[in-house]
Write a structure and sequence with these properties.
400 residues; alpha/beta; eight-stranded parallel beta sheet; 15 helices; 40% helix; binds flavin mononucleotide
């Protein structure tokens, strides 16, 4: 069988032999919208429907969303870095662990409610920070915020949102964290933290794995830039119509533990350090004031060939030793994935791309549909494995 990668590598080899530049090939793969504007008015268009989704399988959403999100933007959302090994491995590695059910447990109706850093939620599934929801739907983060809220799930509003934190807070009253990309300007960092608190954020998520943008080849082939008609109102001086690498010139590129300490002190809120993959690094974060660790490899979008998030989880859970909660994101597409992550010691899990696909396809209701679908699958897994509550899901229910 010839894989997609073989075809691309093959065509580049042929092009090189024929003296054709690969840039020409790259251009030929660009979708209907040139530098990211795709209508006569020059305004970016993607999803605009508001509807409940009838989801059989979360994986199906990717192909459905591909039909309505323009190619460069869809590539930005769906792709990973380099050979996309980590992107694939994030999902595959869940197969390394099997669920071990325990019967005659007297479980009637499992309860999926739990507490995330002191906040009560109806599900351990939450939404991680993802840049530019306007790429998926015209209402952007306003609908994601409402969709999460309606599902009783926690939403991480992000620095690179296309809507202001104030509007995001008003659009959905549910629990929220705020993700900070630390800028070079301390005044801006202070202002972002202030706005996050006034939005109602109960924690700051400090993303530590993106100082330089990963090697996103799909973005290069597709000529992806953030459409200038989708501003980033929370970050002053964000360049318009920029690539990810250009955009990141405004953020600090040599983050260290002093930055973590600054965020904790300035905000007075618990800080979740997101992007941790090593037990030693997790321990260092605890020593410098982290209130939680989010095990993540940025959905396979940063350093390719790092282990799957679920593979990194157990050794981090061990070293953290219940001192603070440990969360995980990367590759969650099934209720059984959520179950396995919780059984291996996670206190909650975040689901990335499927949320943006649900947003593109059905707005706020689409987001709610995705969370509900995964939570229904989790409830079923709990019932069939014999767990009545989230606390009951422990390591005895999963092979290591
Ligand atoms: C389109 C997109 C944009 C993202 N932007 C951010 C971001 O701004 N900040 C951040 O911390 N993580 C960002 N991430 C990473 C997610 O928070 C999360 O780690 C990842 O999507 C989880 O993997 P999954 O998509 O397989 O569920 C982004 C992910 C995607 C897909």
């Amino acid at each position: 069988m010839v894989s997609r990668r073989d075809v691309i590598v093959g065509s580049l080899t042929i092009a090189a032999a024929a003296g054709v530049s690969s840039a020409v090939l790259a251009e030929s793969t660009v979708g209907s919208n040139t530098p990211a504007e795709n209508s006569a008015s020059g305004k970016y268009n993607a999803g605009n429907e508001e509807k409940k989704l009838d989801i059989i399988n979360i994986y199906d959403l990717e192909e459905e969303a591909r039909r309505i999100v323009p190619k460069p933007q869809f590539g930005y959302i769906s792709s990973g870095s380099g050979d996309e090994w980590t992107l694939r491995e994030n999902i595959r590695a869940f197969d390394d662990h099997q669920i071990i059910p325990m019967y005659l447990a007297g479980v009637k109706e499992p309860d999926t409610s739990t507490v995330l850093l002191g906040t009560k939620v109806t599900t351990p599934i939450f939404i991680p920070p993802m840049a530019a929801h306007g790429l998926a739907h015209r209402r952007g983060e306003l609908d994601t915020s409402k969709g999460a809220s309606d599902a009783g799930a926690l939403f991480t509003a992000q620095t690179l949102a296309n809507n202001s934190l104030d509007e995001i807070g008003k659009a959905g009253q549910g629990p929220k964290w705020f993700q900070l990309y630390f800028t070079k300007d301390m005044g801006v960092n202070r202002e972002l933290i202030r706005r996050a608190k006034s939005m109602g954020a109960t924690a700051i998520v400090f993303t530590v794995d993106l100082e330089w943008a990963g090697n996103r080849e799909a973005d290069k082939r597709n000529g992806f830039v953030f459409p200038s008609s989708l501003p980033f109102p929370n970050v002053p001086n964000a360049p318009a119509g920029a690539t990810l690498a250009e955009l990141f010139t405004i953020f600090k590129r040599d983050l260290d533990f002093k930055d973590l300490e600054f965020i904790a002190k300035e905000s007075g809120l618990p800080v979740v350090v997101k992007g941790i993959q090593s037990p030693e690094n997790a321990k260092q974060c605890l020593d410098h004031g982290a209130a939680a660790i989010q095990v993540s490899n940025h959905g396979g979008r940063q350093l390719d060939t790092v282990p799957a998030a679920i593979t990194s989880l157990p050794s981090i859970v061990k070293v953290v030793n219940k001192q603070v909660p440990v969360y995980l994101d990367g590759g969650i597409r099934r209720g059984v994935h959520v179950f396995k992550a919780l059984a291996l010691g996670a206190d909650g899990v975040a689901v990335g791309r499927p949320i943006l696909y649900g947003l593109a396809l059905g707005g706020a209701q689409g987001v709610t549909s995705v969370i509900n679908k995964l939570n229904d699958e989790l409830r079923l897994a709990m019932k069939l494995a014999g767990c009545a509550t989230i606390k009951d899901i422990s390591e005895k229910y999963v092979s290591q």
